[in-house]
């Protein structure tokens, strides 16, 4: 508390009585504004999708007729079957790959763990379009390994599956690393004493302890694949899936009601996964008790070598996909003329928005990181550290969880129906870069909000109690005490917003205009126009920009932590 008192020492503070008395009212107003922002930019667009799905093309109310008409088409059920087949197959492939990688990182003493972990997280820096483009260069009609997939079979089911495996691998890996990082060594000692071998210990001790993590990882992978738009659009060929079908209805046929119906149906798997995960979390037990002994991996040469080999194989495959896209961007004519060139980076002479698209993405991602971090921290602080406006704080908590169950494609559809209405006072935002920033903030809000809440919950409420007893306004406590303590988490939130905004496709595919073209959308348009090498070049720029920004955030976090987090050290 001495540090808190020193931090809150304000010259002439005795003269600030009126400002202190207004502190709670200001907190209530701010909480109400955050709640209204979440309602306007998240809840109402989703309600607009439902309204559009219940009307016909003329705007007349038809009830469930659109649902019945959509469900009556053979092509719709064909797309449903394809989506589930791709999602299930990808999940069954990703889970064992990610589990083996996570086990190698957490349960062995193999060398090079930081390097392998960095390789495994590379797909997070790339749009989902990149693996599709790389696979075309590897296994397509002109690919160097096209004999592996004769008759162009890479354009379809297996192409989508391989691309989605690359895209979803790090998401599953992070969950499984968390699940495998916690274990009680006493259980393994008891199993060994009873004569259980490695396989028996795995099925009786390890698997039951991590089953919730495995199920959560599977649900995340399944949901990400079924709602992804980028990979199927690039390499899907004639293999139609629900996400692409929604795009065709809205962009190709201007059939907004049917697009809204498919969007709502895409919402169901995400909501179902969210509910299942919530139920499983309530049933999960603590893995570490007060008497538990953390498991420490022991050195075993053969196990460590096997783990290093597995990580090298998987990491090498991920690096090969990324490296192929980079090579395609720098080679004159794949695979006939391998002369290095920068001609494919001359975006101004190609269909896709030119270099302006890349600069727009940088501006949009920067604004998303800044606005998103500010909104998230404000909302999280008001809900966790103040008692003003209880209704508004409850609304913030409720709506903050909503984006987790809303695919980007569905949110983008909602923004079309809500903001494109001339009667909407917010219609002026439609077609601007601002609406892309707002959509990106809402799309990735849940993860950022949970990160900020977790950081805030680590601080005792006694800080606010002492500040209140000293009649210090909440914003001074937040600025001088809470913000410095939570700074590492906020930098992580800002980094997450930037990278996610740079790589997203589905959330913004319906909202851009020629003046607000983005790099990720430009990749899609150039690929559609046949400029595949230029698309690979733009995707490479997205990866490079995301990696550089992550490096900057890492250096900033290290430098600022030395100044603001010294109190954590003994």
Describe this structure in words.
With 570 residues, the protein is mostly helical. The chain contains 23 helices and 2 strands. The model is unreliable at 10-16 (pLDDT under 50).
User: Percentage of helical residues?
Assistant: over 70%
Based on Cα principal axes, name the global outline: globular
Q: How confident is the prediction overall: mean pLDDT?
A: 81
Give the end-to-end Cα distance, rounded to a whole number of Å: 17 Å
Note the main sheet: 2 strands, antiparallel
Beta-strand share of residues: under 5%
How big is the Rg?
A: 25 Å
Instruction: Please count the helical segments.
Output: 23
Q: In total, how many beta strands? A: 2
> Are there runs of 5+ residues with pLDDT below 50, and where?
10-16
Query: H/E element string?
Result: HHHHHHHHHHHHHHEEHHHHHHHHH
Protein structure class: mainly alpha
**Biggest β-sheet: strands ordered side by side in the sheet:** 1-2
């Amino acid at each position: 508390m001495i540090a808190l008192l020193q931090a809150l020492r304000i010259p002439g503070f005795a003269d600030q009585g009126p400002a202190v008395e207004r502190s709670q009212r200001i907190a209530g107003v701010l909480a109400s504004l955050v709640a209204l922002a979440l309602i306007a930019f998240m809840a109402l667009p989703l309600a607009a999708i439902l309204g559009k799905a219940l009307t016909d093309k003329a705007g007349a109310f038809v009830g469930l007729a659109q649902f019945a008409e959509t469900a009556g088409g053979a092509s719709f059920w064909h797309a449903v079957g394809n989506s589930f087949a791709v999602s299930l197959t990808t999940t069954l492939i990703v889970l064992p790959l990610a589990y083996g990688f996570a086990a190698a990182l957490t349960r062995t003493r193999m060398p090079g763990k930081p390097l392998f972990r960095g390789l495994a997280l590379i797909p997070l820096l790339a749009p989902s379009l990149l693996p599709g483009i790389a696979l075309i260069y590897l296994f397509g009609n002109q690919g160097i390994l096209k004999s592996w997939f004769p008759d162009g079979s890479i354009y379809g089911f297996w192409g989508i599956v391989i691309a989605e495996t690359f895209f979803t691998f790090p998401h599953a890996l992070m969950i499984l690393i968390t699940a495998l990082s916690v274990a009680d060594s006493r259980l393994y000692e008891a199993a060994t004493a009873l004569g259980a071998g490695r396989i028996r210990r795995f099925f009786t001790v390890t698997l039951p302890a991590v089953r919730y993590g495995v199920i959560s990882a599977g649900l995340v992978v399944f949901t990400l694949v079924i709602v992804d738009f980028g990979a199927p659009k690039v390499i899907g060929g004639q293999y139609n899936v629900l996400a692409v079908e929604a795009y065709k209805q809205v962009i190709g046929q201007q059939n907004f009601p049917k697009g809204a119906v498919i969007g709502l149906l895409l919402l169901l798997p995400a909501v179902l996964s969210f509910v299942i995960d919530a139920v499983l979390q309530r049933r999960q037990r603590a893995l570490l008790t007060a008497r538990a002994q953390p498991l420490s991996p022991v050195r075993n040469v053969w196990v460590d070598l096997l783990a290093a080999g597995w990580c090298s194989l998987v990491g090498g495959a991920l690096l090969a996909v990324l490296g192929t896209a980079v090579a395609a961007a720098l080679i004159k004519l794949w695979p006939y003329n391998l002369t290095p060139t920068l001609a494919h980076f001359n975006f101004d002479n190609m269909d896709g928005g030119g270099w302006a698209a890349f600069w727009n993405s940088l501006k949009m991602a920067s604004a998303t990181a800044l606005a998103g971090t500010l909104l998230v921290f404000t909302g999280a602080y008001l809900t966790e550290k103040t008692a003003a406006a209880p209704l508004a704080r409850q609304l913030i908590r409720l709506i903050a969880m909503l984006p987790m169950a809303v695919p980007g494609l569905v949110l983008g559809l909602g923004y079309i129906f809500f903001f494109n209405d001339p009667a909407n006072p917010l219609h002026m935002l439609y077609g601007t870069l601002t609406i892309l920033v707002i959509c990106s903030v809402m799309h990735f809000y849940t993860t950022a909000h949970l990160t900020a809440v977790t950081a805030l919950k680590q601080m005792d409420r006694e800080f606010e109690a002492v500040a209140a007893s000293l009649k210090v306004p909440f914003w001074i406590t937040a600025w001088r005490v809470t913000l410095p303590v939570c700074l590492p988490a906020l930098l992580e939130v800002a980094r997450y917003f930037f990278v996610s905004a740079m790589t997203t496709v589905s959330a913004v595919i319906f909202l851009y205009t020629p003046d607000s073209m983005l790099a990720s959308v430009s990749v899609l348009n150039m690929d559609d126009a046949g400029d595949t090498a230029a698309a690979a070049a733009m995707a490479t720029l997205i990866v490079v920009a995301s990696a550089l920004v992550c490096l900057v955030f890492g250096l900033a976090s290290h430098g600022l932590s030395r100044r603001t987090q010294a109190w954590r050290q003994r």
